[in-house]
Amino acid sequence: MNIQMVDLRNQYLEIKDEIDSAIQGVIDNTAFINGPTVENFASELGEYCGTKFIVPCANGTDALQIALMALGLKRGDEVIVPCFTYVATAEVIALLGLKPVLAEVCPQTFNLTADAIMKVRTPKTKAIVPVHLYGQCANMEEIMSIAKEFNLYVVEDTAQAIGAKFRFSDGTIKYAGTIGDIGCTSFFPSKNLGCYGDGGALIVNDEALYRKIKMIANHGQSEKYHHTVIGCNSRLDSIQAAILSVKLRRLDTYSNKRNEVADFYDSKFKDLDWVETPVRSVFSTHVFHQYTLKLVDKEDRDLLREYLKNKDIPSMIYYPIPLHLQKAFESDFYKLGSFPISEDLCSRVISLPIHTEMCSEQLDYIVETVESYKKNNNGK
Known about the structure:
Blueprint: H1 8-14, H2 16-29, H3 36-49, E1 53-57, H4 60-70, E2 78-82, H5 88-95, E3 99-103, H6 114-120, E4 125-128, H7 140-150, E5 153-157, E6 165-167, E7 173-175, E8 182-186, E9 200-204, H8 207-217, E10 221-223, E11 226-227, H9 238-248, H10 251-269, E12 275-276, E13 291-295, H11 299-310, H12 340-348, E14 349-352, H13 360-375
Parallel strand pairs: 2-3, 2-4, 4-5, 5-8
Antiparallel strand pairs: 1-9, 6-7, 8-9, 10-11, 12-13, 13-14
Helix pairs in contact: 2-9, 3-9, 4-5, 4-8
């Protein structure tokens, strides 16, 4: 059945005429860099998110780096990040001469928690980077409360959660990426809103901060050939923007389809006593960038993955090594056992295929295969 983690080809075929027309339009007008197509997409994304300003850029990692550059942090300033995340979140902090301070995550939602932040916060802490992992928001109400109390910046990493909504206790609803000082997202092809190459964006409401971010992303130019600050060269090209405009109109539909797949998995796996299905936070919707099971017995994880592979079902481990055990971040301060929850998750999680083009036959086959794992000699 050619099951894939993400089926970009069939997704493209569903919208082929619109995509081809959008790409041809860019070629016809030859405005390939920072043209009206990019401006139009930025406006559409801002309207979707309910935010004032969007700065498109080259990729999600650049978005994080530019965000931190715009905040005026000094070398040695501490920035709190979750230990259980992709390396890019901490990587850009280190690249800028800042100090990434790792914090533990919630064992149920896999996201940064307020308690964990408070355990590692020091007078040198200047910012928090919560990662909305797998498709749902961290508890931004509690995080923003800490940020306000201690005068900290908040940069949301929403690369996996664009379109997710956070509900505050007073009923206010905001999109992921619009709550902190700056939101950062990625348009990597496999993302829920993905282009056909690299791409990213910064989401911001403060006009002064927006102008600084826009300047940094364009070589620090306040006007052409006038370089006010040290910047970088990070831009979304027009062809990618044209593709994203087409797909943005379908983002909610894509999210709904992913939730249908997740609900189906949940209903079938709920009686399996050897797996834990994803926990939905009461304060956030879930857009299911990944559908991630947690195995009760860690020895089952790699055995199950091999079993699925032998049945032509792909799976992925996001992530197999926590940040504090990565060689790039090794330190006398961190060691094995420093973050037991993150270490445990890295040995138990497994993500199953989830995307917008999955058919019932594929889903039935995946579920039947997972269910048969224990029955078939413990997967061996």
